[in-house]
Fold this protein.
Amino acid sequence: MANFRYMGIKRKVLLGCIVLALILLISSSISMFEFTRMNDHVTELISDNTKSIEISRELLAKAEEYNLRLMHLVVGEVAEESIEVINDDEFISFFSGIRESFVTEQDKANADSVMYAFTAYMHVVREASDIWFISSDDIRKEWYFNRLQPVYAKLNAYIAKLTNDSQDALILNSQSLQDNFYRSLMPGLISALLGFLMVLLFNYYLNYYLINPLLRISHGIKGYLSFNKNYDVKVEGKDELAELNDRVKDIVDINKSAKKRS
Amino acid sequence: MNAGVISRYVGIALICNAFFMLLSAAVSAIYGFDSSFSPLLVSCFLTCLFGVFPLIFVRGGRDINTREGLAILLLAWFISCLFGMLPYVLWGGDFTLINAWFESASGYTTTGATILSEIESLPHGLLFWRSSTHFIGGLGVVVFIIMFLPAVGTVGFRMSKMEVMDVSRSNFRYRFKKLIRVFVTVYLAITVLSFVALLLSGMSPFDAINHAFSVVSTGGFSTRNLSIAAYDSPLIEFVLILFMVVSSIHFGLIYASFATRSAKIFKDPATKFYLMTILISSVLVAISLMLRGGETSLFQALRNGTFAVVSTMSTTGFAISDTSVWPILSILVMLYISVQCGCSGSTCGGVRSDRMLLIFKGVRVQLARMAHPNAVLQVKSGGQVVDKELIPSVFTYLFLYLFVVLVGSVIYVMTGMDLMESVSSSISMMSNIGPAFGKFGSMANYADASQVAKFAMAIQMIVGRLSIYPVLLIFTLFRKRF
């Protein structure tokens, strides 16, 4: 602190600029960091939600397609292909792996419900081989509409819930993102505000401690030269300006003495 | 008024804040560079740069006038609160801009009210920063400044007149320069002793230092969600009661008692009045709790009652039970002691026992004058006649205090709070206690208060901390004559 007292103008301005530059650097770094973090967060959230919705739709489409194939077999001829349909490994493995596809806890919980409904559905589907090869068309139809259709409706309802919840989550996330956007803006805004205040302070200090004394010295010299007024400008401190003021006083004194002699 | 000089001293206060931010960052580093490390470090840099900037241009050593002293006092508190927000805002979590402002003001003014419901989930660095704001606020940003002032005599005295009520000065006489040293010595001694005592009582070192900061500054921030109830330890409660009482007695008296090895503390009328109020209030609350029938034993009722009374009167705000569900008699007693509070010359807020004692004595003398119009009656305290000018000024202070409480209550009612919540919150903020009653009780927080209410509460905390007068005097800054 003691060193600041006797600091020269050059060093004062340099230090002021360094402090100002540092503030602006920190402000911009904070802003960039917050925006990058926000951007990553937004991208991740939207990507998770979109993925959830896509998987739900795919689930719905596959379940519908599978059920249509079963219905086709019920009204049509029972053939070897019915065994392939019932033991469709691709369909079964797709459903079995859905839990891992979701990220949020709510989606995972909904996926568990879908899995539970799917297991119940497949349990009924596996009865098909016994019923179709033994029973008549009427019994097959009765089995399809009274036994299979209710569990399919349940599976469908859970898939629909998964889709709806994912869509709702997307809406909620959008709303929370709006709030977070304001939050992420704040640190950068505050830092920028501090930088702005610092610029104002810097301007004040330059004016009050550097430019004003210069103007007073100039005004004093002008008064002496034009109207022969006494030069009595006072400059606080021990920097170059104070030194300049002392030199001007010396010159004025010498000038006065010279005038007297002549 | 020289803005440069004001900015220089505010800058010094900011450097002090930056130092504690650095300490908090170091704590964060010790606890494995938790999530508060970078917010604290960035805040430290920003605050330090802002503090250093005026020192580059403005020369020191120049004497300051009363107007500048007043401006320094107000700006140092206000700007400290603003910069104190930075670690919270940069960290995020529950700290929106208004929440951070509330938490920061609550810390610096040693109020101890919080907007956090999950305090334990905060990183260690930020918890330490919260307690540090208490420590800084308790000692007074102004005292920090005076410590750095080369011309401590005149400048310091002008500013101290705004900070310290001098009713209790009759029992000790120190020059101002020494008074500052006395204040700092006692403050540090209480911090160290309470830290050691809490450590020996079973607290972890981290909790002990944080609670020591809270106790010495009569703040109230805890590191636990349930405050002191989380420890469920009569020993810890006893230690805290002891240090809360000590921290709310005039520091000069404590120093004088130790320095002269005498019982000056117990001879001081204000301190005697304060201790008597604690005793009577504790017994009243305990009886009220026993009559209600919820307490298991008389010891339990006394334990809960004494802790709550001492915590409230010392304006600390620690809790071991939910006082908002207490019977109405207890609540009324608590509301009264929330206004009276501890002694001047300590870190507590409120009207203060010194002033309350003079008010009672003044009222008694006034009544006696009405009965005996020709009698020459004077207000005496500790066997000495009290200055005539002091009594009206004490009544003026009480009027201003109650007026600000009323204004605060009206604002809070308008934001949707009920009457009990509004009035108790307003008193709590003015006296820098922290907990109120109703939704904002000793086991709750201010998260549910509206944004407007939070902002107004923070302002009220600062007004209360500065003992009203300096804030009102700010208007004179804009007048030509002072």
